[in-house]
Each structure stands twice: as C-alpha cells, then as structure tokens.
Amino acid sequence: MKISMLFMFLVLFTMQANSSYAQRTKITLDLNNVTVERLIDEIESKTDFHFVYQIKEVDLNRVVSVKANKELVTSILERIFGNTKTTHNVVDKQIFLKEREARTSILNQELQNSPIKLQSIVSGQISDSDGIPLAGANVVEKGTTNGVTADFDGNFSIDVANANATLVVSYIGYSTKEVPLNGQASVNIVLEESAAGLDEVVVVGYGVQKKSDITGAVSNISEEKLQSRPTANFSDALQGRSSGVQIRQSGGDLDGKFQIAIRGVGSVTGSNEPLIVVDGVPLVSASFSTINPKDISSIDILKDASATAIYGARAANGVVIVTTKKGTVGKPQLTYSSDLSIEHISERYDVMSTEQQRLLFVEAFKNSNRSTAVYDDPSNPIWQVDNDWQDLGTRAGIRQIHNLNYSGGTENTQYSASASYQNRTGILLNTDIKTYSLRTNLSSQVNDWLKISTNITGSFQPQNYSDGDDWGATGYRGFVYHHSYTPAYDENGELANVDSASAPYFGANSNPLVPLLLPTKELNTTRLLGNFQANIRLMDGLFFNTNLGGDLVRVEGYAYNPIYSIGRMINTQGSVTVSNNSDTNWVADATLDYTKEFDKHDLKLLVGVSAQQFLLRRTSAFGTGTIDNALNQLSNQTSFNSTGSNVKGGLASTFARLNYGFDDRYLLTATVRRDGSSRFGPDKRYGVFPSASLAWRVSQENFLKNSTTLNDLKFRVSYGLTGNQNIGNFEFITRAASTPYIFGNSVVVGNSASNIGNPSLQWEANKQLDIGVDFALFKSRISGTIDYYDKKSEDLLIQNPIPLTAGVPNPPIVNIGSVRNSGVEFAIFTRNLTGNFKWSTDFNISYNKNEVLDIGSNSAGEPLEIPGQNIPLSNVPTNLTVAGKPVGAFNMYIFDGMWQLGEEAEAATWFNAVPGDPKYKDLNNNGLLDAGDRAFVGNPHPKFIGGMDNTFSYKNLSLSVFMNFATGNKLYNTARNLFSRGVPFVQNFAEAADFWTPDNPTATSPRPSQGGTTTTLATLASTRFLEDASFLRVKNVALTYDLPGIIFETSFISSAQFTISATNLLTFTKYTGLDPEASSRESLLSAGIDYTPYPNTKQYNLGVKIGF
Fold first, then answer.
1. Better-scored residue on pLDDT, 963 or 1085
2. pLDDT reading at 604 higher than 90
3. Is 1085 helix (H, G, I), strand (E, B) or coil?
C-alpha cells in the first residue's frame, strides 16, 4: 500500500513538473520568411521540446515570419498554427502536430455554446504606465479560484477554462483591472496607479470608508507595512509608523508591555490609553502580548473627534482598530514562517573596577575620619576579585517564533486559519515566556441577502519571572548594586557564602544571583477573543448588521518563596502566593446601514445600538509557615491571608453617523453617540458626544481635475466632543472595606468607609478641533498629510485632597481642571526611484505642546498642586503637576557644582556642608536650602516624535531601514542618584571615580564619604541627575531575499523568502542610562523616571517564509 501511494505521488509530481515546463518555457526568435520546418528546428535547438508529426499532415514548406521576445513556446505555436489545418498538442516535452479534422470548427462552436469549455493557456506581462514590470501582481480568472502571481519580470501564464474568460488583475497601490480575453492567447496588461491609494479602504468605527471619502484624521498601517520588518510584538509593529502616536516600551520586558499616547496626554489621574478594538470587539484589557502580529492585516488609528466620536465616552484618547487577516478568493495557500533571534543587552552601566572602588573607599574613610587600613593595601586578597556582575547575571536571550497559516476561498466563502508558537528566554537568568495561539476566520455569502463571518483567537501564555519591587526594578538592579570585589562562586562552584567578616560592605544582598536562581514566579495567561457578524440585505442599499463578541482573559499566578540559607540571605519559612484574575467582556452591536447614490449625490446613513458588559474578578491568597520546601502549596501553610473583589458593570449606547458627498468634491460627516455608563451615578450616567467634519476635494474641481502634477488635494476641518470614563468603578458611591483596629487589648477587624463617594461625578470631556490637508503629486509619487489640532480636556477626574481628620484614606474624585494639547502632524510618503531598482521613503514627525490650564483649588482656595510619587533616597517627588506647566513637569533643586575651599562659612548653613559637597542654587535668596529653591526644570513628554522608513529593492532583493526619534523631553536617571553618590556601601558608577579633592576642584562628582551630610546632599532630587532624553534610534534593519519563482515550478513549494535583520541596532543619545525611552511608572504624575527597568535588548534575527 505504501509503495503504491508513493508511486502515485511520483506520477502526479512528474505530471505537474512536465505541465509546468510548457507553461514557463520562453524563447526569443527573430525569423523572417522561413519555412515551418526551419521554425521547428529553431525551437528544438533552443528548448527541450521535441516535435512529433507525420510529414503528410503538416505543411513544412509553408513560409512564416516570427518575432518573439521571451514568449512562451505554446503562444508562438498558437500564432503559427491557430488558423491553419494543423493543430498542436503538448504532452510532457513532446509537441504533437496533426491535421485538423473538418468537424473541429463545428465542434468548437458547439462547445462555445455549451457548459463544457475548452481549456486554454494564456500568457502575458503586467506593467505600470511607465512600462515597469509589476512583480507579484495577482491574476485571477473571474468567477473562479484559479489564479497565479506574476514573476519578477511581470510575466505570467495561466490555464483558463475558456478562451473568452475574463482576467481580474490587481496590485497594491494600483486600480484593479478586468481584462476580457476574447480568444487571445497572449495579453499585455497595464495597470493605472490609484492616486495616493484613494481607492483603498480604511476601517472606521462600525464600517469602512474609501480613503478618498475620509473627512477626519485617520492613519492606516497596511499589511504590507506591518510585514516589511520582523516583529515579535504589537508595539514594534506600531512604533514610529503614524504621526501623533507615541509608543513607549519601557525596557525589554518579556511580555512586551508598552504605553500608547495619541496626540499627547489629556488626563491627569485617569487613563490616557486609547480604546483598542479588535475585529469589532472593544477590549477592556489592552494587553497585546497574546496577539500574534503576523495575524494582523491592518491597523487604523482614529485621532480626531470626527473619527472617534462614534465611540463616544471611551474615545477621548483616540481609537486603535486592529483587523486580523481574512481569507481571499483563490486556491488554498499554506504558508510557514520561522524566526530565530539572539538577544543581548543593548547598553550596560559603566561601573567602577575593584581598584577604583578601593581608592574611593580610602578617600571616603579619610573624609569620615575613620581608619583606612583595610583599603590601603592593593595586594590584599579582598581586592583581587573584579567581577562583572552585569555579565554574571545575564545571558544571551533566544527567541523562536513559528507561524503556520492556511487560507483560501471561493467568491462566496473565504477562510483563514493560523497557528503560532513563540518561545523567548530572557536575558536575565531563569526568566522565560511562551505563547501559543490559534486563530480562525470564516466569511460566507450564504445567499444574495445574507453574509456571515466569524473570528476566533485563542491563546495561552505561560511566563516565569523573577522578583521586582515597587518601582519596577528587576533582578538586574541587584547586579548594578553589587560590588565588583565580591565573589560569585566559591571554590566548589557553589554560590559564594559571604559574610561581613570576610570583606567590608558586601551589602544586605550578599549574592545577587540568589533571587534569580531560586524558584521563579509563574504567570499563566489564557485568552479567548472572538465575534460573530451577520450582514443582511433588507432591500437595495439597506443592510442590517449585527456583531456579537467577547474577550475573556484569565491570569493565574503562583509564587513560592522557599526556605534557604545562602550567605547573608536567609529565609527560615517558606511562603506561597496564589492569584486568580479574570476579565470577561461581552459586546453586542446592531446597526442599520443605508446607502443611496443619485445624480451627483452620495448618501450613507448609519444608526445603531450597542451594549457592553464586563465582569472583573480578583482573588489573591498568601500563606506562610512551610517548614519543608516539598510542602510548597497553599494548603500546606500554617498562616493565611486573602483578598478578593468582584466588579460588574456595563455600557449602553445609541449612535448615528451621516456621510454625504456631492459630486465627489464636497464631503460632510456628522456623528453623534449617547453613552450610559455604570461608572457614574444615576443623575450623570448618560452623556452625548457629537462631532461634525467637512472636506473639500479641490483636485476634483474643473480647474485641477486634469492636472498632471497634482493628483489629489483635499482640505479637512472637524470639531467634536468625546469622553473619558477611565476611572475606577463605582467611585460615585461610598464604599466600605475591612479595617483592623484596637479594641481593648485586642486587634479586631471591622468595616469602615474606604472613600467618599461623589454622586455628581461625570465623564472627562474632550473638545477637539482639527484642520488638515491631504495631497498627492506627480502620479502619486509624493503623497502626504498635514494636520493641526487643538484638543482641550475638561472636567478632569482628580482626587481632591481632604483633611486627615476626615478619617477616610481616599479623598473623593471630582471633576475639576483642564488640560490642553495642541500640535502639528506631518507625514509624507515618496517613491524616490522606480524601475528595477526601487527606493521609497515614509517619514512622519509630530509636534505637541502639553499644558495644564486649570487644576482647581484646595479647601483653602489655594491653587491645587499634585505631586508625583516619592523617589528612593530623596523620599520626595521629582514631578509636580500645576497650572501653566505640562502634566508631571519636573520640579527639583538646581545643581550648582560643589562647594569649594573658601566657601566654608556659607556651606555650613546648608546642612552643615563642607567643601566638596554638592551645591544647589538658592533661588529665593534666603541663605537656606528649602522648598522655595525647587524650580520647574523640564518636561517628561517629548515635543517632537517621529519615524522614517526607507525601503530599497532590486528585483528579488530588498533592504529596509527604519528609524524612530523623540526630542524635547527629560528623563530623571535614578540609577545615577543611587550609584554615583561616592558612598562605599554600594557599587559606584565609573563617573564617581572623578571625585572632588582639594587638588581636583573641577571634578564632576562630590567628595566620597562614609555617610552623613554628604550622603543627604548627594541624593537630593536635582538637575544633576536630570538628563536630555532626546534620541535617534536605528530601530530595525532588514535584508530580504525572495528566491526566484522559477526554482519552484517543478515542486510543491511556491515561494521562499529569507530575511536577516537587526532590531535596536544603534541609538544616538546624550542620555547615560540604559534606555532613553525608559519609564518606571505608568502614572503620568511620575512620568520620566528611570529606575533601572528590565534592560532593552539588541536582537539579531534570521527568518524564513515558505509558501506551498
């Protein structure tokens, strides 16, 4: 049986190979007035074909002339013998010539009129209007799944069922063209460019629109752009692609966490995250780490009120619409891709060597009047160890990604299915994350009035991670903290057991490898995201649409802290933490969509209702008391504590949108939505959010319509109102919580108010004006957009301070204050060179000014000031939000060098400072260092952001170079505050080696000290550690090679692509930390603080993509 199956496979494979030889063999001939016999000899000499015929049936002496340039042999034979008494038939590599029977013409006529069709081979070339071949253009026989792709010279060959069939030819950026064959065996097809992609479809709320009809500010990132560079997560695919959109990914976290801000930040204490909609399902949890970027077909970013108002109360921060891949009409296609990446820390801290540390110790102990005996002798065995702890605690990370996609369909039914596996080992020891995902999509035109579709994505993501702390620091900071002279392993290869007697200042964490080599914490995320959609045609132009969707996320955590004793790190009792969090989100939409075109008028009307329900459950339990590491479950503990919450809420909405166009020149969009949210009290539960926009397509006016220079010019203006409901649930009521208190001699637990409810609480309101222009020039070789916006956020949701005597820990949230974001966005797309060598550029840049206009006042009538969170050591905030400044502006002392000899008297009034101690400016001239000397010294938000993507290609080789940048913002380098103080009990950065002495008065670092006043002054939050965070980063460089299709024409493989790429290759910045994009706090009140997050990485990737 196995042998027979193998034999059948070989036969079929051979038939496929032979058939394809005829379809791909092309020759060049220039023969004038030669006989048919001479023509046959020429073809046999230049190919592997052999002619078989009887001399009496073929007129070999007939004179013919043939001119062919890389033309299929079958096409030449059709021209020579098509209207003669000789027929030709190709079998294998043999061409049979025979006399045509007299009844053949009659038979052909009968077959033309019957359902049975004769198969024909049609060949040709596809090019643009300049004659440039369009490699990869799609050719499909209309009404069938039969299709092929043009090769790198634009040539194609296709078997059609009927010589009078119609070919549908399409190519990205060009208008689709239908070509009737009318019996032709060879056709050359010229495609016309669609002006700036104006015929392209953009996904908007509850529908799609042609790009030419858009009246709002919408950015589209196509599948072509998404796939142009290897990406392992959503943020990499989006970063730098769209003007006005800032993606901040703090370090190289394994789960790819990131923050998105569209047109600045408008909320002070509420969320500034945009609404994320995936295949029509608005997400409650905006985590993208479980969504495979290779499953994404397009990303549309709605930025102004005209585009976002259809989402009402959730649209103040913009909307990001993600559309996953769908099946396409054509033969089934199977695609496999694999990527292997090696990751290394992109930057390392420059720390002192052991010898530099010893010399600092000597100076520090001299300055503290203490003995330096231990430190004076460099030959002491203590100083012979010089470990690079940043190297000991890290490794090369490895990431593997495997994707399998199967898609296809007929005109009525299309399908797509994919599977993905990703395995990433972190650069920190004992950290890793895996992601398994499955996705299916099915769309079917059931009959002429009903179309249905489904999208389902399931994923499972297990993660192992190590300890962090409240400031987002990870185990990595322990390696920076630790002295280079401390041993990592003992003579037996075990973790070194170091105590205070063997060396000075080993610190509390005697071996930073311990936390990473203990059992890790586990975090398992399961997600199911999907929806069902139905489109019902009620009558011509009127459709009823329904969308039922859900997003279910479950996160299970487990952490065991074992019993151990390693050096001074001792834990005598084990403990277990278990958590179980679930987010359940259901949505149901129903819309009526009416379209009517008459005369020069184009009318579209959408009305709908929507209901969304969410259920959030949080459960956490902690137990301790384990006496044996084998008893590592919660039930084995002797002491327990647990917390939990269960929150249910929802959103009920009605909405409408009107699109009107006159003569394809004047466009109007009007939108309104009414939302009711459970997050607000009964009297403030509903809000109405309207918007309107106008557009004038000047290029469609008679005086420009026929311009050969200006292909498109459209002016836009919009204004509207959207809302922000992103606060905690049920803040409008006073809630109770369990509270321990003393009753007699005992501690008992009772209930008390945890907050003060505010029944007048309502949405944050966002009013936005947008003025824009879209343009395209020189056959759309240059196209772009320019937008000016003015966005004012009012009725901000802010906690209003109350006296402590109120007895409530959390003050009420009230609607006070306003913030303005105004700016300009510019994006341009150019095709610099065309032809065999192509060069295209995408560039965007945005300017944004953020300002707090009003933030209210406290109970005493004084302007309210909202501080950020305290930073370590200083125990004071570095950020302060006040009217007239950006949200979270930096407010701190101004560093003024060091006190010098001769300034002893003045220095003594500043915390008893002495020469060599840090000096700060006395801004209020009172001779003291106090709160009046703190000043606003910088903005944590960049003024300019942008990106540039250059793509170069020559035939089947392409090179992509992508860069992104930001400028105008500052970043507080907390690591320097910790490790550049000149104190001996932590490892110091190399810059601290240039410390002040009487002989080195211009040093960059203060005098070393064992502690006391110098330590206090050296750690004050000041401009000494505030740095320019502007950067230009070569984000990705990718070199891609597509193997020529001719290689695979005799195999089951249809295409193969190889890619070599590098991510985070180069960063140009003045910032001395690990990453100028780092931010250790999600809260904007404490923005721009770098507290040694998970290090970012350079990634070197090798990828392969194979089509079957």
1. 963
2. yes
3. helix
Judge if 18-100 and 338-893+934-981+1019-1107 fold alike in CATH terms. no
Give the count of alpha carbons within 13 A of 153, CB side only. 14
Give dist(CA 253, CA 405) in Å, integer.
28
User: Over the Cα atoms of the chain, what is R_g?
Assistant: 35
Residues recorded for the chain: 1108
Structure tokens at 79: 């021209």
pLDDT at 1015 over 80: no
What is the token pair recorded at 711? 């292909």
Domain 18-100 has CATH 3.55.50.30: yes
Secondary structure (H, E, C), 609-628:
EEEEEEEEEEEEEEEEEECC
- Fill in the amino acid letter for 221: I
Task: Locate 774 and state its tokens.
Answer: 């879209």
The pLDDT score that the predictor gives to residue 856 is 82
896-913 in b/e form (b: 16+ CB < 10 A) is eebbeeeeeeebeebbeb
Answer yes or no: CATH 3.40.50.880 is held by domain 338-893+934-981+1019-1107.
no
Q: What is the pLDDT of residues 476-527, one digit of tens each?
A: 777 887 888 888 887 777 777 655 444 454 444 467 787 777 776 888 999 9
User: What residues have CB less than 8 Å from 667, skipping those under 6 apart?
Assistant: 213, 215, 659, 660, 661, 694, 695, 696, 697
Give yes or no for a contact between 530 and 456, defined as CB atoms under 8 angstroms apart: yes
Q: What is the spatial distance between Cα 64 and Cα 67, in angstroms, rounded to a whole number?
A: 10
- Please name every residue paired with 220 in a beta bridge, in sequence order, or none if there are none: 300
Domain parsing of the chain, residue ranges? 18-100, 338-893+934-981+1019-1107
**SS3 annotation, 281-335:** EECCCCCCCCCCHHHEEEEEEECCHHHHHHHHHHCCCCEEEEEECCCCCEEEEEE
pTM confidence score: 0.80
Chain-centroid distance, C-alpha 455: 21
Q: Is 15 exposed, middle or buried (0-12, 13-18, 19+ CB in 10 A)?
A: exposed
The HSE-up count of residue 629 (CA atoms within 13 Å, CB side) is 10
